[in-house]
Amino acid sequence: MIKVLKDKLVANIKPERVNTTLDLFNEEGKKNALTAAQLLKEKGCDTIALGCTGMSTINIYKKIKENLGIPVIDPVLATGAIISYLNF
Predict the structure, then answer these.
(1) Cα dist. 20→14, 82, 86 in Å?
(2) What is the C-alpha separation between 29 and 35, in angstroms, rounded?
(3) Which residue spans within 1-88 are E strands per DSSP?
(4) What is the pLDDT of residues 42-74, one digit of tens each?
């Protein structure tokens, strides 16, 4: 993300105590992911691009969008959307 967004990247935060996708399957992991998203908004992010496919697995983008009212880019859904437009 840093290489692509360069100076447009406002912040990059990893949720506390989330080290693998498995950490997202418990309530603490989900809560920490939402807290990290809130911190990103407070730092000035107007859009959040999730950097882990595990976040897609738990559908956290919906909760973030509902709670914070800003766009959230889910990496799996975004990839699927791009692929659907390609001609093979």
Answers:
(1) 11, 26, 31
(2) 10
(3) 48-49, 72-73
(4) 999 999 999 999 999 999 999 999 999 999 999
- Whole-model pTM: value is 0.89
Using the Cα atoms of residue 53, residue 27, residue 43 and residue 48 in order, give the sign of their dihedral.
Answer: positive
62 burial (CB, 10 Å; 0-12 / 13-18 / 19+) is: exposed
Q: Contact at 8 Å (CB) between 37 and 56? A: no
Per-residue tokens: 56: 């897609």
C-alpha neighbours within 13 Å on the C-beta side of residue 71: 6
User: With contact defined as beta carbons under 8 Å apart, do 43 and 37 qualify?
Assistant: no
How many Cα atoms occupy the beta-carbon half-sphere of 48 within 13 Å?
Answer: 30
